[in-house]
Automatic annotation (TrEMBL):
Biological role: One of the essential components for the initiation of protein synthesis. Protects formylmethionyl-tRNA from spontaneous hydrolysis and promotes its binding to the 30S ribosomal subunits. Also involved in the hydrolysis of GTP during the formation of the 70S ribosomal complex.
Protein name: Translation initiation factor IF-2
Localization, UniProt: Cytoplasm
Domain Tr-type G: 77-245
Highest rank taxon of the organism: Bacteria
Residues of the full protein shown: 294 to 663 of 873
Homology family: Belongs to the TRAFAC class translation factor GTPase superfamily. Classic translation factor GTPase family. IF-2 subfamily.
Binding annotation for GTP: 86-93, 133-137, 187-190
Length: 370
């Protein structure tokens, strides 16, 4: 049976904690505000206050968390979210560095060496693109599992001197399973042994037919080092984005997904969150995975403090009570009580499933095969 702290019960009834303690005393139960009481006692207290008893089931707690669906008229254009995938060492991070240096706001071409998981660039004409680097982040598998709402497009990086390898194939399968369009960046064309034609031929085996061969897959020869083709790649991404018209409602409570999260000395738990809809503001109360918190500060991808972040913006969030996991959701809720309710519920659920798999060998094996 469910248990609840006195404070939590008070919150849910919108009564003062002290009043609940008093009522408990009347019922012969001595409990402080932070103590836990069982569901039957809680039910008694609730009726003493004259409220209706409503025991919520698991589904009820999660229900409505994401709010109502947006009407068409509330939707506004948002930048595309582009995830870079490919085989190890094929140049994903280098390519992102090269792409980032096209940012007219950050300026200083080539001067950026900071490697972070997600950032946004503004290109000539004012269009924005958000990029997510995948390697190193166990994130991507997690994210896909959540329905691949996270990325709009995939840049598949294939080194022209190496061709399609295991992780390239894996990336193709991920993108296909998620129904996300692929733009192929044939990288390292500056190398003498580069053979872009071979890469295009290899793609055919995976039912990716390059435009040059009569298909619809855009292939852009690039070099992250010489910067050849970088502008073409950006143009291709913008073209795709224009065709697909990505939209979101910025005027609602924010929700998004955790791209990476860590515990930092002096700063506490920090999460890089990709906002998917709504606008996140300093002071907002949120739940993320089985953690909750209140936004103490927001930093953009350049490390500058910002007051808010809208759809498709990656932002560093400070003010978490614990460290969520990459791939966890991030949802702004109305108040502390709601945030804690959901976080506690999820933490308990997690604890129980860990316990179950620890005590049942069969269960854990089945989970592993999942
Ligand atoms: P992982 O994150 O480990 O999967 O690798 P990655 O795909 O991010 O590759 P990364 O950008 O780290 O590049 C790997 C190596 O290839 C580095 O030594 C780069 O300097 C080199 N490299 C990347 N792009 C190019 C390119 O266009 N031309 C040449 N010549 N070298 C490149
Ligand atoms: Mg890398």
């Amino acid at each position: 049976p469910e248990a609840i702290t006195v404070q939590e019960l008070a919150n849910r009834m919108a009564e003062r904690g002290g009043e609940v303690v008093k009522t408990l005393m009347k019922l012969g139960v001595m409990a402080t505000i932070n103590q836990t009481i069982d569901a039957d006692t809680a039910e008694l207290v609730v009726s003493e206050f004259g409220h209706n008893v409503q025991r919520v089931s698991d589904e009820d707690i999660e229900m409505g968390l994401q709010g109502t669906a947006d009407t068409e008229s509330a939707l506004r254009p948002r930048p595309p979210v582009v995830t870079v995938m490919g085989h190890v060492d094929h140049g994903k991070t280098s390519l992102l560095d090269a792409l980032r240096s096209t940012d007219i706001v950050a300026g200083e071409a080539g001067g950026i060496t900071q490697h972070i998981g997600a950032y946004q660039i503004v290109v000539e004409g004012g269009s924005k693109i958000t990029f997510i680097d995948t390697p190193g982040h166990a994130a991507f598998t997690e994210m896909r599992a959540r329905g691949a709402d996270v990325t709009d497009l995939v840049i598949l990086v294939v080194a022209a001197d190496d061709g399609i390898k295991d992780q390239t194939v894996e990336a193709i399968n991920h993108a296909k399973a998620a129904g996300v369009p692929i733009v192929v960046a044939i990288n390292k064309v500056d190398k003498p042994e580069a053979d872009p034609q071979r890469v295009m031929t290899e793609l055919l085996q995976y039912e990716l037919v390059p435009e040059a061969m009569g298909g619809d897959i855009i292939c852009v020869p690039v070099s992250a080092i010489s910067r050849e083709g970088i502008d073409d790649l950006v143009e291709s991404l913008l073209l795709q984005a224009e065709l697909l018209e990505f939209k979101a409602n910025p005027d609602r409570n924010a929700s998004g997904v955790v791209v990476e999260a860590r515990l930092e000395q002096g700063r506490g738990s920090v999460a890089t969150v990709l906002i998917q809809r709504g606008t996140l503001r300093v002071g907002d109360i949120f739940v993320t995975g089985s953690e909750s918190g209140r936004v103490r500060a927001l930093l953009n991808d350049r490390g500058d403090k910002v007051e808010q972040a809208g759809p498709s913006e990656p932002v560093e969030v400070l003010g978490l009570n614990g460290t969520p996991e990459a791939g966890d959701d991030f949802v702004v809720v109305e108040d502390d009580a709601r945030a804690r309710e959901v976080a506690d519920f999820r933490a308990e659920k997690k604890r129980r499933s860990q316990l179950a798999s620890a005590t049942s060998g069969r269960g854990s094996l089945e989970q592993m095969m999942d």
